[in-house]
Amino acid sequence: MEKILKVENASFSYDKQNKVLKDISFEVERGEYIAIIGHNGSGKSTLAKLLNGLLVADSGEVTVANFSAKDKKSLFEVRKRVGVVFQNPDNQLVASIVEDDVAFGPENLGIERKEIGERIDFALKAVGMEEFRKVSPTRLSGGQKQRIAIAGVLALKPEILVLDESTAMLDPQGRKEVLEVVEKLNEEEKVTVIAITHYMEEAVRADRILVINHGEIVMSGTPKEVFARAEELREIGLELPPVCQIVSGLIKKGLQIEKEILTEEELLEALCELLQKN
Amino acid sequence: MKDVSFGQYYPTQSFVHKMDARVKILLIIAYIVGVFLVASYHFLGFGACLLFVIIATIFSNVPFSKVLKSIKGILFIIIFSAIIQIFFNKSGKVIWWIITDEGLLNAGFIVARITLIVLGATLLTLTTSPVEIADGIESLMSPLKYIKFPVHEFALIMSIALRFIPTLLDEIDRIIKAQKARGADFESGNLFKRAKALVPVLIPLLISSFRRADELADAMDSRCYAGSKNRTRYKKMHLTYRDLLGFILTAGLITGVVFLNGFYVLLVI
Amino acid sequence: MRIVAEELNYVYSEKSKKLAVHALNGVNLTIEAGDFFGIIGKTGSGKSTFVQHLNGLIPTDSKHGKLTVGEFVLSNKKCDYKALRAKVGMVFQYPEYQLFAETVFEDVEFGLKSFYPNLTKEEKEVMVKTAIETVGLNYEEIKDKSPFDLSGGQKRRVAIAGVIVSKPEILVLDEPVAGLDPQGKKEFISLLHTLHKTTVKTIIIVSHDMNLVAENCNKIAVFCDGKVAKVGTPKEVFTDYENIKKTGLDLPLIAFLTQKLQEKGIEISTNLTLENFIKEVFKKHEEVKAKQREGGNR
């Protein structure tokens, strides 16, 4: 598989003294769905900004499809490929009409008019917001605004979509909408996804989880592998997703239950098997 | 708080909506000049301007109530200027107490003038999205580029400001409520006290605006923003027959006003 | 203080026929003193509008139903809002964004100045100190610091201190744990329980987080289309599956699991907390095992 993103020994500090990120290294394959989890202040949002060159590592290297984020000349090549969706939907929309906002990115790249129109069609369709094309974003719900923000990034045709706590300010309905869109993009459009979050439930879906604490990657593996280390997670201020909490509670009580359960459905099945009388 | 209709775009399909923003801006300027050209005490000229607004509204598919609502927002200013004229204009014949005929006429004149100007400007903002207005102004101002005026940045700042007005109004509403819940009182006391009471609103607002600006800058950078260089435009402005018609109508209006003014002068003689 | 709402109505832009939005359509609800009360409902169900009535941020009158909070009759025109607001504290979503003063002390003191203008400096100091310590912060260490230099969690605590400083009997919190990470959330919930035990009689939380209200509240009201669709204990509310579905809400995880198990003929009775569910499953399992043994013996 092709490595689309490489982070090699990246360190960063805002004040030249306290390192927010310490010697971070990881690689991401094309089409992967990665979740980066950590508590508030663990450095995970700083990492997001390193990935598209909003911040430049003090030492080490971030490369996207062989373009260095450090190099001013290739910065745009990096940003074109790494789209970032931030936390507050209100603070990333620049225009008062949905289609004008989606057009903002392609306009910056100097793309021809006709193609911008096509990209708006594509991006709005991908997030299921075609009918809101001429609407003002202020009239939309939080989840819808965030889908427009995703469309604005998709119009740049990125290869990697970085979600920097993009669901944190949404209600359950909005969160569901956004996650469904992201999942669809990952599956159908083969967009590589890097989701930065502290909602453990959202990490369950990932192919791989990176756990970050005090600016270091302390765990890495599939959700099953990571969530099997409940004690360590708790020590760094993280909780298992509720489903896994139930499973680990039952195991502690001495019940025979599959250890690697992640979803509600799997849990339900296991419980039925456990409690069925016959 | 959210009832501000001034500056709110009314999305629909219409003749006026499809006109070139630059032309609309120029026409509005011409219209405002027209309103100012109407000679004192001469209300026929205003009639012509009103007719112009009515025709334009019909062609814009915007309900009249929407256009009229804009006056509500400046009602205070209108009443205030009328009162000043009525009570403080000392020239002319005294009709009753200190009120003179000239004062009354002047008041009517000023009310008509402000109302007509606001109606016209509202029609522009109702039929032209903020982005189009900003683009239009940018295009009209583009000759200024030669004297190194940052036209593009200026236009972008303007459209972002327009975009954030509703967001900030919501925010102000929220902060006011939060401070009221902690006992803040914005309604009583003298002017100085009231101004002081606003500090707990203004500081959080300022801080949050800076935070928003920071995040917006990051979001814009992430979407490859790098100034006006090599930038293309999705919405291209081009002149159509509609713009020509608009021109003719406005030209007619101004000629009408001038003509009616002259007619009036002749009558007096 | 007891809260009683009878046929409470509220319409946004009431005078305009086109823009009028009916936010509350006859709310009937009683919240007893001492409750740890949860209010849930989808965005736009009227729950925020309702709680903003409780301290008069949205004023009401006798034409729009009746609302009393303790001895205050809010539907009466002469209601003293200032005195009411001292007794009904309200914490909005992301309260840390309302901090404004130069020092933590001044910020927390803000409410006292207008609620109780006759207090002496010493009296105020004692009240501010109590409030700051109640939210779990070190008074001496923090009082002269700028609130903007604190961490996110500390800021939120200072904001809460600024509300409880006037010794309210009722504390309303809108999405109190939004934006907190798991550890911060846990600590904050335990702070709410401490407040409930020591300082404020009644706590009302408004939230989208079904697990949060199911695990922490003794009573819950479900809002839907400007009305109260259901009131009861978490168990009563979340086992009324039909009703919850109608209001468009998700079930908390435990209620979801019990419902699905019930459909398969497995009855588990729980109070909807995680620990309790695990215990009950274990119990059930023992029963099943015992029965199987019986069957085997026969």
The first-level CATH class name of chain A? Alpha Beta
Outline the low-pLDDT stretches of chain B: 1-6
The number of strands of chain B is 2
Would you list the SSEs of chain B in sequence order as H and E? HHHHEEHHHHHH
DSSP helical segment count of chain B:
10
Give the termini distance of chain B in whole angstroms. 52 Å
Reported CATH architecture of chain A: 3-Layer(aba) Sandwich
Oligomeric form = heterotrimer
Q: Please list the strands of the largest sheet of chain B in the order they lie side by side.
A: 1-2
Q: Describe the global form of chain A.
A: globular
Mean pLDDT of chain A: 92
Describe the structure in your own words.
The complex is a heterotrimer of chains A (278), B (269) and C (298). The longest helix of chain A has 17 residues. Chain A has 278 residues and is of the alpha/beta class. Chain A contains 11 helices and 10 strands. Chain B has a domain of 159 residues. Chain B contains 10 helices and 2 strands; from the N terminus they run ααααββαααααα. Chain B is flat and about 65 Å long. In chain B, 30% of the residues are buried. In chain C, strands 6-7-8-3-9-10 form a 6-stranded mixed β-sheet, sandwiched between helices. Chain C has 298 residues and is an alpha/beta fold. The interface between A and B is large, with 43 and 31 residues.
List the helices and strands and how they pair.
The complex is a heterotrimer of chains A (278), B (269) and C (298).
Chain A lengths: L2 E11 L5 E11 L3 E5 L6 H8 L7 E6 L2 E2 L6 H7 E4 L12 H11 L4 H14 L15 H13 L5 E5 L7 H17 L3 E6 L2 H4 L4 E6 L2 E6 L1 H5 L2 H6 L6 H11 L11 H12 L3
Parallel strand pairs in A: 3-8, 3-9, 6-7, 7-8
Antiparallel strand pairs in A: 1-2, 1-4, 4-5, 9-10
Helix pairs in contact in A: 3-4, 3-5, 4-5, 5-6
Chain B lengths: L14 H4 L2 H17 L5 H18 L3 H25 L5 E3 L2 E2 H27 L2 H12 L9 H31 L9 H7 L1 H24 L18 H28 L1
Chain C lengths: L2 E10 L8 E11 L4 E5 L6 H8 L11 E4 L2 E2 L7 H7 E4 L12 H12 L5 H14 L4 H4 L9 H13 L5 E5 L7 H17 L3 E5 L3 H7 L2 E6 L2 E6 L1 H5 L2 H6 L6 H11 L10 H24 L1
Parallel strand pairs in C: 3-8, 3-9, 6-7, 7-8
Antiparallel strand pairs in C: 1-2, 1-4, 4-5, 9-10
